[in-house]
Amino acid sequence: MTLSTIKKGPFEGQKPGTSGLRKKTRVFMEPGYLECFVQSTFNAIGGVAGKSLVIGGDGRFYNDKAIQIILKMAAANGAALAVVGQGGLLSTPAVSHLIRKRKTDGGLILSASHNPGGIDEDFGIKYNVANGGPAPESVTARMFDETLKITEYRTIDAPDIALGDLGLHQIGEMQVEIIDPVADYAALMETLFDFGKIKALFAGGFMMRFDAMHAVTGPYAKAILEDRLGAPAGTVINAVPSEDFGGGHPDPNPVWAKALMEEMMSPTAPDFGAASDGDGDRNMIVGRGSYVTPSDSLAVLAANAHLAPAYEAGLAGVARSMPTSAASDLVAQKLGINSFETPTGWKFFGNLLDAGKVTLCGEESAGTGSDHVREKDGLWAVLLWLNILAQRKQSVADILVDHWAEYGRNYYSRHDYEAVPTEAANALMAHLEAQFDSLPGTQWSGLSVRAADSFSYHDPVDGSVSENQGLRISFEGGARAVLRLSGTGTEGATLRVYLEQYAGPDADNSLTAEAALASVRAAVIEITAMQSHIGRTAPDVRT
Ligand code: VG1
Ligand code: CO
Question: Which top-level group of life is the source organism from (predicted)?
Fold first, then answer.
């Protein structure tokens, strides 16, 4: 086995986005592209000599090849140990747990999450640090700096590792330990929830459908829901991870999990439905005839978490990303616990969790998690819901109605405008920002603007400041709109418009979201001159 240093790089555009580096798969397959990003990551963390890493991915096209490349590079850079999921598979929350459990120095996750997979679709890579969470901005900034100056990477000439064979392997001086991707994660879940109660729920005839969307959660959901909790075979559908996610987007929302939504809205719907994304860190929750917005899900989980053993003693606090609705704030207020508003992306929750300031975190994009790991965790959210359902013995719809009667309802929807020319999207944002000083007090579609600003986050733990994290407009009467550009896309820009309207406990809480949000939507279209900037006012995806 010979070590070699290959002259390559730098490549343009290797700046990590909201969640790692995402590009077209063919870009990642260009000779040296993945290698230079990985070497830059190693360089940014002071090298990996003597260190240990967890490595795994969501099973998309190029997952296994990328892992072989990374293993050889880690060995050539002097790493001591790589813990790898069998077949190259590991969900994002499972990686987070393994980093913490095995006390490794970090981990690499091969995934573009909810983006589609395949040679003509997307690939991605994320680096997580020793607390198990996504690299914070200080680290991603160093990684990016390294990508700008890299001129060579290190690798070793060695045969590929048989990723299917459990146990110890060797590349040069580095040990590779291939592990069951599910076992440790499933054991962790068992410590958090009352598996006996959930088992009894299923034994009593409770029916559930879980759509794994042909992605990594399939093996986890089958092992936990069907094998351990006794849900009937067939509860988990699309359970085998495929390289192209069956040709769809593994994005757990009513648009991409359409078949599940139709089943849940039909007269023969099971009691409970759920779906998860490509890398298993996000979740969709839906009851019979009743879709739960991710913002409401976070609030309901916060209000009821004490019904699960892990959270019996109560929560330290709840954090949500800024575009997420304020529903969880209302719960925190009532419980008398901390609440925080962070920028989009899980990396901002890490400090709050590490400092013990919060127990639950969530994002409107269907990411929910707790201090059991340092990532959002799709199956965890599903299990917490199941634990709550087993305790409350009520339908999802009834739980929501009760919740709104107590706290009021934050009507909510996210509208995505995809593949917008980048210049047009930037111009729309600039046009909005330029009006900030004059907007307060003005009227738009019957709504009066209360305030408008660009969100800056001051991390209360390390004092770091993150600016330009989304533009927000709040209106008199409890409406709010947030606009930001996606940091996970690979083509043009995706404009995300987040709409919210609060209705108090005594207001009509039975409207459709569309009706309740009509005014704030019309106001945003007007204020941003949307039609003239991007040539349309109808979104591609509404969630
Ligand atoms: C999106 C979501 C964000 C989430 C991120 C990564 O980012 O909006 O809430 O944290 O994806 O999720 P953006 O920048 O496109 O809005 V995942 O499941 O890709 O790790
Ligand atoms: Co994901």
Answer: Bacteria
